[in-house]
Amino acid sequence: MGCSWKLIDALRLNILNLFGAFDFFKERENFLEEIDKMIERVDDDAPKLSGGLYSPLKDIEETEETLPTVKLREPEPVTREIKDEDKWVLTGIPGFDKLLKRGIPAGSNIIVAGGPGSGKTIFCLQTLYNAASRGKDCVYLSMEERPERLKEHMLSFGFNVKEISRTEHEILLRASGGGRISLKRIQPVQLARSIEALLEEASGTLPIKIDVVLDFIPEDFNAFLLALDSISAVETAFSGTRRQYRIYIEQLFRYFERLNLTTFIISESLEAPKRFSETGVEEFLADGIIVFYNFAGKTERIRGVEIYKLRGTSHARRIVPMEITDKGIVVYPDNPPLAMPL
């Protein structure tokens, strides 16, 4: 099957409807050019996505009837006030924050990409723990690791946390600084269905108001940071088509923005990636991309980290060495940068 111009025009119109409703991208034309490039790559020989726990993305013949034709309305914001001192997020990870001019802009959606064992989970847990040590409430949503296992990770690095409650799918911890951390396991299908409901609500086909993502946050939390592990699992649970996924995942990102949360969204990639998510869609929507590398050296693997992209502030543009110690991640921003292996 091929992509007809009629289909492309319909897709562009739907994307423009998104822009008109949300006024999301500052550089609309640049983004549309990237969408056009993506459309050109999606044809008969386009690789299928990984399939999934619920239903893989359907590679079916699409017509104007099968494409989404929603005109999204601006949803009512669900926001919290951001104090002046919280407008820039610091990870507290030794050496990492030196790569940033001021910090990560609060409210950003950040992709944390890398291969297996590269340090993505530790980076998120360590960042959430450091925030909780400053009195902030944080949430870690996992679709793979059990809460008990995540707690063991934190204790193994000497993080000073104490369990205050637990249920079958959630453990609530309190850090030494008074902030709390919710370690919660959710099913990919559960989140996928929630996003689909958000899309129905935004299109006006769902008559009731919903706060589905808030259901994953404890009721008495004033959540400051949220980690989602992982977007790859969300993708496998999606029940629509490849093109519909672009609108679908945009709705998730926009919902996090409505909550004024800074989110770290883990994405599995190759150990030396040229693309940081399965589809590439998330990379255009995210405010930032942090990439963890685990290169094969002559005698042992070499770890590195890079802030590949970050809107709203300047940052170092190089791969810097890092290591995982018994106290967590340590970054060496003043060491010679690492070269990307060919």
Overview of the molecule:
The protein is α/β, with parallel strands linked by helices and 342 residues long. The chain folds into 2 domains: 1-44, no CATH class; 76-331, Rossmann fold (3-Layer(aba) Sandwich). 29% of the residues lie in helices and 23% in strands. The chain is built from 8 helices and 13 strands. The chain has helices spanning 5-22, 28-41, 120-132, 147-156, 188-203, 231-237, 242-258, 281-285; strands at residues 88-89, 104-105, 109-114, 137-142, 161-166, 170-175, 180-185, 223-229, 262-268, 288-296, 301-310, 320-325, 328-331. An 11-stranded mixed sheet has the order 5-6-7-4-8-9-3-10-11-12-13. The chain has a two-stranded antiparallel ribbon with strand order 1-2. A hairpin with a 4-residue loop joins β6 and β7 (180-185). α5 (188-203) crosses α6 (231-237). It starts with a helix and ends in an 11-residue tail after the last strand. Residues 1-13, 15-29 and 38-75 have low confidence and may be disordered.
Task: Write out key terms for the chains shown.
single chain; two-stranded antiparallel ribbon; 8 helices; 23% strand; 342 residues; Rossmann fold; alpha/beta; 11-stranded mixed beta sheet; 2 domains; disordered N terminus
Secondary structure elements and pairings:
Layout: H1 5-22, H2 28-41, E1 88-89, E2 104-105, E3 109-114, H3 120-132, E4 137-142, H4 147-156, E5 161-166, E6 170-175, E7 180-185, H5 188-203, E8 223-229, H6 231-237, H7 242-258, E9 262-268, H8 281-285, E10 288-296, E11 301-310, E12 320-325, E13 328-331
Parallel strand pairs: 3-9, 3-10, 4-7, 4-8, 8-9
Antiparallel strand pairs: 1-2, 5-6, 6-7, 10-11, 11-12, 12-13
Helix pairs in contact: 1-2, 5-6, 5-7
